[in-house]
Amino acid sequence: MSEIAAKAVTTRQKQRLARIVPYLLLQALIVIASLLGLRLLEPRDPDDFAVSEFSLREAGTTRPVTLPDFTASRYSLADPPLYSGSFVSRADGAGTTWSVFLPRFSNGVEVAINGVTILDSRRDPTANRPDRNTPEIAMIPASLLREGSNDISVRLFVWGPLRGFLDTVYVGPDAALRPAFETRTLLFVTLPVVFSAWQSILAVILAIMWLMRRHEPVYGVLAAAMVLGVVQAFITPPVPPAASSRLVGVLLSSAPIESALIVASAVLFLGWRWPRYGVLLFVPGLIVIAGGLIAGPPLPRILFLLLGIPTVGFCLVLMAGIAAYAVFRRQDVASFALGCAATVVLTCWVHDILSVFEIMPNERTFVSRLSYSALLIAIGAGLTWRFARALNQVDSFAGQLVARVREAEERLKASFAREEARARAAALANERTRLMRDLHDGLGGQLISIVALSERGHEGATITDAARAALKDLRLVIDSMDDIGGDLMLALGSWRERAVMQLRPHDIALDWRVATPQGLPLHPELRPWHVIQIVRILDEAVTNAVKHADARHITVTVETRNDGQGPYGVISVADDGRGFALGEDGEAAGASQTARGVRNMRSRARRCGAVLELSTDESGTRVRLQLPQIFPDSDAAGG
């Protein structure tokens, strides 16, 4: 088993090595391509009009210099370095406009022609940041130009912590200098603004996504990083010696925090947990901010140079390592794109660091902020890829869900059909059982009585009465099978006709009273077996009045009442007979036929959910049947 496990481990290592080697080779190609791109990115200036030989007066001394040139770093503008030189104006034709073109400088310049100032970059707030590489061009008034030699002086303003830098100055016809100026403006001014605007839009989109999906903090972290980047791009620092806002210095020194946020968003985007010690990445940025708030300029610039720039580089290296590890472990599109973008930005950062430390003195072009857009493109591509994959998964899940719902519907339909068939069969069986029981209890008993009377030789009148009772019971069973639509009054109307026919031979009058206009409320749940139980109760009450009470009048009252919880019906049967004795429990005393009849009436009332009240005295007997608001589904509900 140990040999098999060792072989499995070796196989996995080979597979991982096979993944990482091509990735590293690709990153090396990206580095080479980035360096070549930086070479090609550098615009070609009109060398025919270059002015590079100057004399520099700095710190009380004057010496000849050749541009490009670096001056000493300083924090005071009391004695700025002054470059003095000359150029030759040639008469190329009437109306030719000449200009002065400065490709690169730091931090601010003032240009004078023949002692007259024609350009002061400090009036343009966007032109005094080294990371912008903002070019400047100024037309020379024709009245200032002299045929032949002309004087030019460039005063360089430096406010540290980097050394001042002045690139080659170009003086010539505006038509020859303008294309180079416009190219540099497009690359180093317009494109950063476009990318920063794109970054602000992406920040808004990410913030909205985070507000809608609070459980995914990656969107909020990335939105915060984008906001810091936009702030750095669009907030312009005041130009010395103007008063400098500490808050502006803090915001412009927030690049370390932005880089730490990018690393945190990458970790969260790849689905990993942010480690506790990861907060250490934010410490340098917080130190820079604290320095800006407490001391103000130039301390934030110094702290940014000492802490901020190394932190940015470390975060970029960390980003590249995270992306490489993700490709090594997962090998997905998002990790691959993130790794390639991190390599591009890291290469540009190394290029800028070498320029800052003058290891590449002629490469004084800062492109880190411009290359940062590559990282935004990678993040946007990763989020888009993730969103598209989520949509595909949602579509696939929706298709599967629709198919499963259809299958469930088919199963439910089949189940409903089976249950409906079972319910129909059960209802038929219950109705058949009820009908058989009613025929057995009612018609069967009457037929047995008729047979017994015939065998005993009783008179025809007695047999006729028994036959009429059997016929009455048969009609009752048949009438109960009619569909009355929940209207119990229809069944009571049929019962009233039978009751009148029953009472007529005995000279008993039936007084029918409907106390409420609607009679009884409708009951959609009313079933035939409910009707037959109610009708048998009424039959029993009338039969007792005929046989045992010697009554001359029977009053039937039908009404609807409402106790606040809903309407319910009440049917009362009262006679003027002699009544009978009641026991302590409210039942008829003894074991007479009347007592059995009362017990049957109460049993039937319970089976259909009704309440039977019985009262009797010397003036007669009153049976009150209170119907339920909703009839029960089963005749076993009452016991």
TrEMBL record:
Residue ranges crossing the lipid bilayer per the database entry:
20-41, 186-211, 218-235, 247-270, 277-296, 302-328, 335-357, 369-388
Q: Does the keyword Transmembrane apply?
A: yes
Give an example GO molecular function. Answer: kinase activity
Keywords from the UniProt entry? Kinase, Membrane, Transferase, Transmembrane, Transmembrane helix, Two-component regulatory system
> Transcription as a keyword?
no
Organism, by scientific name, is: Bradyrhizobium guangzhouense
Q: Which SUPFAM superfamilies match?
A: ATPase domain of HSP90 chaperone/DNA topoisomerase II/histidine kinase
Q: In its UniProt entry, what is this protein called?
A: Histidine kinase
Coiled-coil regions, chain positions: none
Domain Histidine kinase/HSP90-like ATPase, by residue range, is 529-631
Note the superkingdom of the native organism.
Answer: Bacteria
